[in-house]
Amino acid sequence: MEKRALGKSGPRVSAIGVGAMSFSNMYGPTNETESHAVLDAALELGIDHIDTANVYGMGMSENAIGSWLKTRGSNPFTIATKAGITKDADGNRAYDNSGPHLEAALDASLKRMGLDRVDLFYVHRRDHSVPIEEVAESLAGMVAKGKIAAFGFSEIAPSSLRRAAAVHPVAAVQSEYSLATRAPELGLVQACAELGTALVAFSPVGRGLLTDTPPDAARVQDSVFLKSNPRFSDPNLRANLEITDRFRALAADMGSSAAALAIAWLLRRGDHVIPIPGTRSVAHLNELAAGAELALSDADIAAIEAVLPVGWCHGDRYSDAQWHGPERFS
Q: Are strands 151-154 and 85-87 parallel, antiparallel or unpaired?
């Protein structure tokens, strides 16, 4: 599989990675056996980048990775994890970007996975009470200690990236990016390219909308996240399924699965873009990986964007509650 740089001076990793939120129960019930099967299949496919976080299943995802690594006895993956999401005294979602909190969370993540360090450590959400320059300094200190090889930020604006990068190189920014979510093209794709920062694209198949088996109303109810998401609530869901039927038909005409075509389109957005689809299914992982092997012509890109033009998707990508934390920009 093609390799791409995870930051200006970072390692070269597979053009797509595995988003390990699917190793928790966020998108439906799962278990370690299923997660281990996905990790085994990833290696066979040449996928060597795994992305997780301490809050995915409240440690469940990291524990699954750790138990897999323990049985193997070595680590063949470039591993990223995240921290910064916490709860306040009343149990409400909150953010803490202080150095002591981030380092303590990192230490707990390392213990769950049985690692001495991670290759990439993200601040999962910004805590605006701490200047991002100060956060970058704290993270640089963890690099100096050898606990992390590099750091990044999730769901930040281009202006925040530039402020952090003025203190220390930022290896990666993670953002939702797909044919269904084009907002990163309003500055983030460009800023990452300019600064040598990888743009790690999560939900690259639109949380299932851009696949041959999109979530129906029943499957949506099995997902903690989707059942409160505007794009997966009627009438938006019905509209989105009808529109993406045209994309599925186009993919079939091109001899591809919809998921592979969505991944191939995203890889054409820039050499610094690295999609990290998540899945509980080995068969679906094979479809996703096939996208890295598709060579799309300019005519193919035009055909894709004709059936899914900018702004086609009905409903916001987050509910009001889910928007708590990500930085909006335009």
A: unpaired
**What does the alpha-carbon distance between residue 326 and residue 330 come to, in Å, rounded to a whole number?**
13
Which tens digits make up the pLDDT trace of 227-260? 999 999 999 999 999 999 999 999 999 999 999 9
* Architecture of the domain spanning 3-213+259-295: Alpha-Beta Barrel (3.20)
Check 27, 56, 95, 122 and give the catalytic one.
56
- Report the C-alpha gap between 36 and 69 in whole angstroms: 9
Is this model's pTM higher than 0.85 or not?
A: yes
- Would you say 233 and 206 are in contact if contact means Cβ atoms under 8 Å apart? no
Residue 76 CA, distance from chain mean position = 20
**Complete DSSP assignment for 152-166:** EEES--HHHHHHHHT
Distance, CA of 330 to CA of 314 (rounded, Å)? 19
> What residues does each domain of the chain span?
3-213+259-295
Is-catalytic flag, 56? yes
